[in-house]
Amino acid sequence: MIADVLTDAGNRMDRAVEAAKDDFASVRTGRANPQLFQKVLVDYYGTPTPLAQLASLNAPEARSLIVTPYDKSALKAIEHAIREMPNLGANPTNDGNIVRITMPELTEERRKEYVKLVRSQGEDAKVRVRGVRRKAKDDLDALKSDIGEDELARAEKELDAITRARVDAIDEALKRKEAELLEV
Q1: Which letter does DSSP use for residue 146 in this model?
Q2: What is the mean pLDDT of the chain?
C-alpha cells in the first residue's frame, strides 16, 4: 500500500516536471525553434487546433521559421494565430504557399522579462509538485491505522526525498533556461 502511494506520487510529480519543461520550451530565446509554436492554437473551421496538426514547421536559419500548411485554405488562420500569440513578438508573412516567420532580436529588457516569466512557471511547477506531496501525505496518514508509525515515518522520509528530487529537477531545468535566455 505504501509503495503504491509513493509510486503514484512519483509518477504525478514526474508529469509536473515534464509540464514545466514544456512550458520552458515555449518561451523563446534568440533562436527560432519549432517548439516555440507548440502552444499556438489555430481557429480551423471554428475549432481551436494545435498548429503542429495543421502544418509542418522547420527552421532553415537561426532567426527564421517556415510553416508549410497541409491545407492551403488554413494559411490566413495560421498567420493570424501566430501574430496573436503572446510573448513571441513574431511577425509572420504569407506568400500564398507558406508562412515565413522572422524572429526579432531580443533586447536586454525583453530577455529579463522572459527570465521572470520562466521563474514564475518554475514556481508554479514546484507548487504542483508540493500539492502532489500533500495529497500523498494525506493518503499515507489515512493508512496510519493499518501500518506502524515507524513504517509511516520511513514512507514520509521517502516521499520527502522523491519531492526534493523533483524540485531539484525543476530548478536545474530553470537554471538551464535562464542561462539560455541571458546568452547574447
Answers
A1: T
A2: 87
Question: Could you tell me the pLDDT band of residue 145, with boundaries at 50, 70 and 90?
Answer: confident
Chain centroid to CA 65: 20
Nearest to 51 by CA among 63, 31, 35: 35
Tell me the C-alpha to C-alpha distance, in Å, between residue 182 and each of 108, 115, 154, 177. Answer: 8, 8, 42, 9
Give the integer Cα–Cα distance in Å for 33 and 88. 11
Angle between helices 108-142 and 149-182 (to 10 degrees): 170
Q: What is the pTM of this model?
A: 0.70
Q: What is the pLDDT of residues 51-87, one digit of tens each?
A: 889 898 888 887 788 989 998 888 888 888 888 876 6
Copy the grid coordinates of residue 106.
531580443
- Please state, in angstroms and rounded to a whole number, the distance separating the CA atoms of residues 143 and 128: 23
Output the nine-digit C-alpha cell for 80. Answer: 493570424
List, in order, residues 6 or more apart from 65 with CB less than 8 Å away. 32, 33, 34, 36, 37, 57, 58, 59, 100, 101, 103
Cell 514564475 belongs to 120
Helix spans in 47-99 (H): 51-54, 75-84
Q: Is 53 exposed, middle or buried (0-12, 13-18, 19+ CB in 10 A)?
A: exposed
